[in-house]
Amino acid sequence: MAWIHGKNTVVKVATADLSTYTDTSELPRTADSHDVTTYGNDAHRKAGGLLDGTFTMSGTYDNTAAVGPRGKLEPLLGTICAIIRQPEGTGASLPQDSFDALLTGYTETNAVADMVKWSASFEIDGDVDSTAQSA
């Protein structure tokens, strides 16, 4: 088994590489569950349905207005944008997730005894393409 360090993760939103501003990202995937239980069963029967998912990312605020998270993400709030997530970094045959997502939230958090933090939340729109990176 080979362990992969998270520091190599690459995240791009609407072609903007926000990796250097991001310290956490998460891509939970879900599927609808339908109860198809009929008479005569002693337990619930289930059938799968549509796939769904969300994407979140966050990091330490950087006041580089034009290229930082605030400058790149805030204008996209309420719009669907392309996202590329490369959990092992960039390179041929490494995993990659590409998808469109609706930016539903952008938050800045200002704690008195800490650095300013930011976070963004997305709802996936359509399929996730998990084809490995090409050369």
TrEMBL record:
Source domain of life: Bacteria
Record protein name field: Tail tube protein
Organism name: Kribbella speibonae
